[in-house]
Amino acid sequence: MIAAVAGPRLIGYLGRAKSETAQLQVRQIGNALQLFYIDTGRYPTNSEGLTVLVETPPGDISWAGPYLDSNEGLNDPWGRTYVYSEPDEQGKPSVVSYGRDGAPGGTGEDGDIAG
To answer: Are the CB atoms for 43 and 95 separated by under 8 Å?
Structure first.
């Protein structure tokens, strides 16, 4: 009987923990992007992606990374790579996890987590 009551609550806690972890990781990647920008004077291109936060881009002598500990920090808690977009009109890059379902939009655990 206890398992019947506690099971759904535990699953809810785990889902919330993954969403909160993704929010923290998006902020950490954002901070790493700022450090990359300070060192190189630019943000990564879409073709370079977030891997330049861990691996030196070819021919970039101003790179002073790694800015993240490993490539694992580039995956969300559901095991998918964060989606990166070059700076928008306001000059800010975008980092997004599409949540548990891996699709844009959604609510709750399936909602987008962006920074």
So the answer is: no
Find tokens 């987008």 and name the residue.
112
In the block, residue with structure tokens 């009987």: 1
Distant-in-sequence, close-in-space partners of 11: CB < 8 Å, separation ≥ 6: none
Of 43, 38, 16, 31, nearest to 99 (Cα)? 16
pLDDT in tens, 49-61: 999 999 999 988 9
Chain segment 9-44, per-residue pLDDT in tens: 545 555 578 999 999 999 999 999 999 999 999 999
Residue type, 106: G
- 67: tokens are 């800015």
Entry pTM: 0.82
Does the domain spanning 2-114 belong to CATH 3.30.700.10?
yes
Contacts of 89 (CB under 8 A, 6+ apart): none
Domain ranges of the chain: 2-114
